[in-house]
Amino acid sequence: MSDKIIVFDTTLRDGEQAAGVCFSERDKLEIALQLEAMNVDVIEAGFPAASRVEACNVAAVARQVRTASICALSRAVPGDVDAAAAALEGASRPRIHVFVNCSDVQLAQQLGKDRDEVLGMAAFAVRRARKYTDDVEFSPMDATRADPVFVAQIVRVALAAGARTINIPDTVGYILPDRLAALFRDLQQRVPELEEAILSFHGQDDLGLATANALAAVLSGVRQVELAVNGIGERAGNTAFEEVVMAIQVHGESLGVHTNVDPSGITAISRLVEERSGMAVPRNKAIVGANAFRHASGIHQDGVLKFRGNYEVIDPAVIGHTTGTEIVLGKLSGRAGFVSRIRALGIVLPEGGLDRAFDRFQEVANHRPQVDDEDLREICDMAQSGCVSDA
Length: 391
Ligand code: KIV
Description:
Helices cover 44% and strands 14% of the residues. It starts with a strand and ends in a 7-residue tail after the last helix.
């Protein structure tokens, strides 16, 4: 038996909170439609109360996307809930996501309200959202730094007011995976009503733990994960969509879970988000970085040439990566990689020429980060013409 994990994509909302990112209506629409085509379950399109333009952008996405649920974020205040509902009017599956701070530090230092006032705000806002749609999500913000007794209390209040999804945010990317697992177990014990709701996790990557935390959450009963393509988002970003989707794809059987996401769209959506956000994907980024399927050292090249699975856990074709596994020649490459590359270029060397060319290649490689095909042709031409010594 495999449980379905609901994939909630927040590239267009928390992703857009990355410093320096501004999606136009067209960007939001194209990204949302591509996510929908990949069978993403919920797309958080934005925060309509932020501005008139943002409300229009969310409305445009809500009108166009038909199969995925479209979600709009709202603080636990009436004006925000109404703005979210108005923006979602054209949606075929509207969801309102209400949140309020719940850690003592944020109550005292940001909101200036006590716990009872916050409980009242949560109940009121969720009830108001339920007047517009049955699909209401509630997030106690900064839950991982909050008093677990208060988190349980506010979750109970939100459920009683009609929330169907309870999302636990690690707002400042603070928690460790084992502590998060314990938090979810504790919460489910304190609030048995959660059995009737969907439990969700929203992670930030401040300590680089967002993906590990999302998987720990899944192992502790969470059935919705909130993700952003390329991991973009506030500060160090959100849990990376491609990482969690592929970790579940690779380990789903042992985890007993699956998603409905079509992974063949991952490379394309990553590139689209990279282009539209203006945030370059680091070369070594898991799954979607330029080096994710490039092999540079001799031992790895030899292994991957014999059997791709020796050094790759994902078949690049599965994520729609058209270049696929690559051998990149450089200082640490060995003979196997060198020979495979010159064969791929159709170069045939005479007796002794291969040894000469390989020696020359190693000399050249010691002085540059990469030996490309043009360099190789030159090296082989020289070896063929005998211009390279056997020494
Ligand atoms: O990081 C956070 O806590 C959020 C919530 C609104 C889910 O973005």
